[in-house]
Amino acid sequence: MPCELCGKATDKLTTVRIEGTMLKVCSDCAKFGDNVKAGGKDAPNRVVIQSRLENRERRMKTKDVYTQEEQQVEELADDYGERIRKGREAKGWKQEDLAHQMNERLSLIQKVERHDIKPDDILAKKIEKTLGIVLIEKVPLVKTEKQAVANRGLTLEDFIKSSKK
Ligand SMILES: [Zn+2]
Question: What is the pTM of this model?
Answer without folding.
Answer: 0.44
